[in-house]
Amino acid sequence: MTQRKIILYDPAVFNFAKTVQNLYNACFDNRITDLSFLHQELVRAKTHYDVFNEYTDQDSMFHTLFYENMEKEFLPLYEKFIHEYIRPLYQEKIVYQKKPTFRAHLPNNLSVGAYHRDRDYHHATTEQNYWVPLTPAFGTNTLWVETEENKGDFQPQELDCGKILIFDGANLRHGNKINTTGKTRVSFDFRIVPFSQFIDSDRTTITAHTKLTIGDYFDISDY
Predict the structure, then answer these.
(1) Is the pTM here over 0.90, yes or no?
(2) Mode of pairing for the β-strands spanning 163-167 and 4-8
(3) Partners of residue 156 on adjacent β-strands
(4) By 3-state DSSP, what share of the chain in percent is helix, strand and coil, each rounded to 5?
(5) 36: nearest Cα among 165, 163, 133
(6) Within the chain, what is the greatest distance between any pair of CA atoms?
(7) What would you report as the CA-atom Rg of the chain, rounded to the nearest whole angstrom?
(8) pLDDT above 70 covers what percent of the chain?
């Protein structure tokens, strides 16, 4: 399995950043011109978040608004992306995460509440993680991943929009640092399993308690 790899996609064809910006502008009176400054809405809303932990890192108003509004524009674009771009990367049909996981790494906070391997949270060791930043990801606002299993030498994954990190998140520890850059990092991620390597089970996700099965957490792309 590939430990880490960066691939490119065309953000003009799959303009996830603009789609997310449109989603928030529908909620914030067209005030969002740069997702890197999404956190400025916290001041306007007089909202404060304590440093997130593994149980609260999906609880911000930005996460709530995204998940409540993703089905209109974002989810159709994501499904098109899976079927037309990701599926052809494999020699067989794939099992993919039906709804991607959204991240907003706010200044002075975390995006993921703890360094972890996904297998520690019931995910199969055959899953591959796809991490897609929609804003510049750098320094303390990006994802940090160890280079080898249990090595602990966490490295920053510095990417711009249009690049995707594929990594073995099931077995490599990864996480975040407190964001001291002054800019929000917005990203989403999802998991892929080649169909021949997928094993159905009754495992569930830790937070949403969604079954890690085809039809619940996963779907199949056999285009």
Answers:
(1) yes
(2) antiparallel
(3) 144
(4) 25, 25, 50
(5) 133
(6) 50
(7) 17
(8) 99
**Would you state the torsion angle of the CA atoms of residues 21, 22, 25, 27, taken in this order, to the nearest 10 degrees?**
-110
Q: Which two tokens stand for residue 62?
A: 């930005």
CA 182 – CA 200 distance, rounded (Å): 42
DSSP sequence for 138-175: -GGGSEEE-SSTTT---EEE-B-TTEEEEE-TTTS-EE
Predicted local distance difference test score (pLDDT) of residue 201 = 77
Structure tokens at 199: 């094993």
Higher pLDDT, 219 or 209: 219
Residues in the chain: 223
Residue 92 has pLDDT above 80, yes or no: yes
- In the numeric block, the tokens 């999404």 are attached to 38
Identify the band that residue 204 occupies on the pLDDT scale cut at 50, 70 and 90: confident
pLDDT in tens, 6-32: 999 999 999 999 999 999 999 999 999
pLDDT in tens, 160-184: 999 999 999 999 999 999 999 999 9
pLDDT interval class at 2 (50, 70, 90): low
Say how far apart CA 134 and CA 174 lie, in whole Å: 19
Compute the distance between CA of residue 175 and CA of residue 153 in angstroms, rounded to an integer.
Answer: 12
CA–CA separation, 8 and 31 (whole Å): 29
HSE (side-chain half, CA atoms, 13 Å) at 208:
11
210, two tokens: 């969604």
DSSP state of 100: P
Residues 103 and 66 sit within 8 Å (Cβ to Cβ): no
